[in-house]
Amino acid sequence: MQTIQKRAGEDFDELALVQSAKKGDLEAFSELVNRYDRNIFRIAQHITHNEEDAQDVVQDAFLKAYQNLAQFQGNSKFYTWLVRIAVNEALMKLRKRRNEKTVSLDEDVETEEGSIPREVADWAPNPEQNYGQSELGDILRKTIQGLPPGFRTVFVLRDVEGLSTEETAEMLGLSVPAVKSRLLRARLQLRERLAKYFRSKKNGDGQREVH
Amino acid sequence: MKCTEFLKELTDYLDGTLTESTKAELDEHLHWCHECHVVMNTTKKTIEIYRDNQIYELPESLRSRLHQAIMSKCRAAKPSKGKA
Prior knowledge:
The structure holds 2 protein chains of 2 kinds.
Chain A: H1 14-22, H2 26-48, H3 51-67, H4 78-98, H5 133-145, H6 149-160, H7 165-172, H8 176-198
Helix pairs in contact in A: 1-2, 2-3, 2-4, 3-4, 4-7, 5-8, 6-8, 7-8
Chain B: H1 3-8, H2 10-15, H3 20-32, H4 34-52, H5 60-76
Helix pairs in contact in B: 3-4
C-alpha cells in the first residue's frame, strides 16, 4: 500500500535531520531522500518529459544537496532549497537534450494562445470520468508537454505541488509578478487545450468574441 | 468590468488572494457574464484534474533502486564540511 505523502516541509524535526546529515549522518540524509524523492521525480518529469533524465535529476539533485549541505543556512525550508537544485539540474538536461542554450525560465514567452480564451463551451460534469485512467494520463501528459518550460514549471510547483507564489518565486529566481503572469497563462492554455477532450457535447462550437 | 479585466484577476480570484472589494467586483461580473463563468469554472477544474491525477508517480521498484544509488553515491562522495 502506498504511504500517504506529507506535504513537503511541514515536519518540525526536519531541521534536526538536516543538522545530523551535515555532520555526516547518512541515515538522517536517507530519511530526507525518503521524504522528497517522489516530489523531486515528479517535478523533474514535468520539466524534462523524459524518464531517464528525470531519474538522473533525482540522483544528481540529492547528491549535490548532500555535498553542499554546509551551504544550506536554514533561512529557507530544506525542500525549497532542494527543489531549486533539482529545477536547475532538470533545465540543464532539457538544454542538453534540445541542444540549445535558450531554455530558460527567464524568457517571457509571448504567445497569444491562451491569453484570450476562445473556447467557452462548458465541460461535461466530471469529464475526466469519461476516460480510463491510462487514457486520462496520456491526455494530461500530452497537454502539459505542449507548454513552454517556464510555464509548466510554474504550474507544477504552484498547482500540482501546492507551493505558494512566494516559495515558487524564490525557487525559480523569478519575481512574484512574473510567477503570477506565467501561472495565469499556463492555467488558461491548459484549460484551452483540455477543452477539446472535456467539453460538453450538447453545447455548440463554443467559440466567442471577447467583449 | 470587462472580460479582459476579469481574466487578469482570474489567478488571484481562484487562489483566494484578492481584497474583498476586488472580489466583489469579480463576483458581480460573474453574475451576468456566462462566458467568464464557464472560463472560471473550467480553469478551476483544470487545476483540480492535474492535482488529483498525478501523472508522474515514482514506481516503488524504481524508487528503491534510485534510493540505493543515491546513498551509495553519497557514501563515496566527500562528506559535507559544514558546521553542525
